[in-house]
Description:
Layout: H1 2-11, H2 15-28, E1 41-43, E2 48-51, E3 53-54, H3 61-74, H4 77-93, E4 95-96, E5 99-100, E6 103-104, E7 115-116, H5 122-128, H6 132-149, E8 155-157, E9 162-163, H7 175-187, H8 191-207, E10 208-209, E11 212-213, E12 216-218, E13 223-224, H9 230-244, H10 247-250
Antiparallel strand pairs: 1-2, 3-6, 4-5, 7-8, 8-9, 10-11, 12-13
Amino acid sequence: xxxxxxxxxxxxxxxxxxxxxNAIRAMWSLRGxxxxxxGNTLDVQKGTWINRSGxxxxxxxxxxxxxxxxxxxxxxxxxxxIFTDAYVAVMRNYHDEGWYHEAHLDTGAATxxxxxxxxxxxxxxxxxxxxxxxxxxTHDRFMSVWRRYxxxxxxxxxxxxxxxxxxxxxxxxxxxxxxxxxxYMATRDGRYQEIGKEIVDDLARHxxxxxxxxxxxxxxxxxxxxxxxxxxxxxxxxxxxLLFDDSFMRDR
Length: 252
């Protein structure tokens, strides 16, 4: 919706945004009627859920993120109305003392009691809607894991206080850095810049290689892969830069 919404405004052709908005409406129509929750994966041809367990992490994160950012960018109340209903449902059904688990869209029953690296965008989203106290609490949870391993694993079983047995990797994701930058901009609390310095130092210590920065196969052993995702430069480094240089905000 962000990309197609901008395209419609640049071209004067509303069909791009209309198509994206219709996709949002169609997905939202498939929510749990008693819970306002979504599943994780759709069969796009049949319009039915393949996985009826959902959360705020992989497979679901962009739905929430793009709704609130589309409202910020375009001012369309429909995006905000859907987001607020979805946000209330998240806080009612997924929130677990600062962590977030997944739940079944029909019943709200908890399914996977795990934190994932893609969930780390959530504190930044909460900053956008003014829920800074809740954002800070969840950010603290994620940083406690980062400090234990010097990086954040793809999946962490927070109830067991243990790494997931098969998803121990860190592919240089940006979400935690983005939330750190957003919290700093909202609070001007210097500790978030200090956290940014920790992250920079850990990235240099554990991922720096002659050709750039390498994804980490196992955060417990720091085994590296011969690979660097493009989002490391496009997002992780960008948010670290903005954390220490927010002059773009002062110029406005």
